[in-house]
Specification:
It is a single chain. By secondary structure, the protein is an alpha+beta fold. The chain has two domains: about 80 residues, Phosphorylase Kinase, domain 1 (2-Layer Sandwich), CATH 3.30.200; about 170 residues, Alpha-Beta Complex (Aminoglycoside 3'-phosphotransferase, Chain: A, domain 2). It has nine helices and ten strands. A five-stranded antiparallel β-sheet has the order 1-2-3-6-5. Helix 5 runs antiparallel to helix 8 and helix 6 crosses helix 9.
């Protein structure tokens, strides 16, 4: 594993940090806390700036909290390749996936009128690749080792006609809970897709990695095109895995982690 980069003096000065940065666990290993500020390297500057602008003016809600971005002393959102956000109280709780979905619904309602960002056309990373594969914008061709997963998904995939908007594409580990407070939504990766797809990703992740039962998917089956959203959510995650790690990612344990969710999604989509 690469050694996490440390915030430089220019980052500390840029955000007027006075506390010693402390490396946090989780995520991709590059997030630091300094007092009331979270610091992390910028992956894609256009996305960081767009997201910060949106969150800066998003009205407060009784249904959710957000970690607003912090400006530099010069009024910018980035200092020496790093961004900053406010610390919000709370911790993840993977047993509360229904509450995660409810928070996601309210967040998506609040940002429903936000225009589509241009940076989505040029962002290149494994997650963007998986997104484009899931929505048939690029070919769905994965290693033969993934066939037990990809064949039933591709055979069940059907066209959908749902409106798209800005959505949060990674809810399960990025909703924090604190007693007496609304859930807090952090680390927003931006996509332009139907909100139900973002919720389906959360359900798929919970099924594969957080010991959720099939009842979670079944409780939300009233959502539009739910079966097809689950299918596309799985394609997204599976294609992202291979784009990030190559065909060698398809170990028996990883295939087994996905298989029950694939079988369930196909069953729901066929109903």
């Amino acid at each position: 594993m690469d050694t996490p980069s440390t915030p430089s003096a220019a980052v500390i000065e840029g955000f007027a940090i006075t506390d010693e940065p402390v490396l946090l666990g989780g995520g991709r290993g590059g997030t630091w806390r300094a007092g009331g500020v979270i610091l992390k390297p910028v992956d894609f500057a256009a996305e960081t700036n767009w997201r910060a602008d949106v969150l800066d003016v998003l009205p407060a809600s009784e249904h959710f909290r957000i970690a607003r971005s912090v400006r530099t002393v010069d009024g910018m959102w980035i200092a020496d390749g790093w961004e900053a956000s406010q610390v919000v109280d709370g911790a993840t709780d993977v047993s509360r996936q229904d509450d995660v979905l409810r928070a996601g619904i309210e967040f998506h309602r609040a940002i429903a009128s936000v225009p589509r960002p241009d940076f989505l056309d040029t962002r290149q990373d494994p997650w963007s690749t998986g997104d484009r594969v899931a929505w048939e914008e690029i070919p769905f061709r994965l290693a033969p080792a993934a066939d037990p997963l990809t064949k039933p998904l591709s055979q069940t995939l059907r066209p959908v006609d749902l409106p798209s908007q800005a959505v949060h594409g990674d809810l399960p580990g990025n909703v924090l809970f604190a007693p007496g407070l609304p859930p807090a939504i952090i680390d927003w990766p931006v996509y332009w897709r139907p909100p139900t797809w973002a919720l389906a990703i959360a359900v798929v992740d919970a099924l594969c990695w957080y010991d959720a039962t099939p009842g979670l998917a079944e409780r939300w089956a009233h959502l539009p095109a739910w079966g097809q959203m689950l299918i596309r959510a799985l394609i997204y995650r599976i294609a992202t895995d291979e784009a990030a790690s190559g065909p060698s990612c398809w170990t028996t344990s990883r295939l087994n982690a996905y298989q029950p969710a694939v079988d369930l999604a196909v069953t729901i989509a066929d109903q």
